[in-house]
Specification:
The chain has eight helices and four strands, in the order H-E-H-E-H-H-E-H-E-H-H-H. With about 190 residues, it is an alpha/beta fold. Belongs to the UDP-glycosyltransferase family.
């Protein structure tokens, strides 16, 4: 398992790891070393779930020691994806050694290509609600020639089945800004 470096993503991965381990599956779970200490107490099956520390390389602009989205403000989150991109050689070496049947991931766009090359299946485990994904990324939101704005997100997209989502203006602005961030742009230190 290789979740996005955010505790809100890591926690559901720990839950699914526990469910799979309860059925007898061996799990290898890649995490930054500091984050590992925060979640290892939630490992209900330490004989089946092994946390593997990931060395978090430094990239310019990221504070030293930063490992997760909890460690940096939102404008620096794309740098964490750059860090994850830099871990690809280490993850590949580990996967070659472990020879897993499946790799669960989210947000790491290079992982499916890597696992395919190694003859391993990959599973996108999206822990963002389907309602949120539909609200933000439905084809009805396609706006030709311009970026999504906060004002665009104040109303549900055309044909959205529920009007129960009501964003405040500040929430809509923040979501629109996140959709415009350039995740995965690698910056070397």
């Amino acid at each position: 398992m290789y979740p996005w470096f955010a505790l809100g993503h890591t926690t559901p991965f720990v839950h699914i790891a526990n469910k799979l381990a309860a059925r007898g599956h061996l799990i290898s779970f890649f995490l930054p070393a500091g984050t590992l200490r925060k979640v290892e107490a939630f490992n209900l099956h330490p004989h089946l779930i092994t946390f593997i520390p990931v060395i978090v390389p430094h990239v310019q602009g990221l504070p030293l020691g930063a490992e997760t989205t909890n460690d940096v403000p939102p404008p620096l989150h794309p740098l964490l994806m750059a860090v994850m991109d830099l871990t690809e050689p280490d993850i590949e070496a580990s996967l070659r050694q472990l020879k897993p049947h499946l790799v669960f991931f989210d947000f790491v766009c290079w992982l499916p290509k890597l696992t395919r090359k190694l003859g391993i299946k990959s599973v996108l485990y999206c822990n963002v609600s389907s309602r949120t994904v539909g609200y933000l990324f439905t084809p009805a939101r396609k706006i030709r020639g311009r970026s999504l704005t906060g004002a665009d997100l104040l109303q549900p997209p055309e044909g959205f089945p529920s009007s129960s989502i009501k964003l405040h203006a500040h929430e809509a602005r923040e979501l629109a800004a996140k959709t415009m961030m350039d995740y995965g742009a690698v910056f070397h230190s």
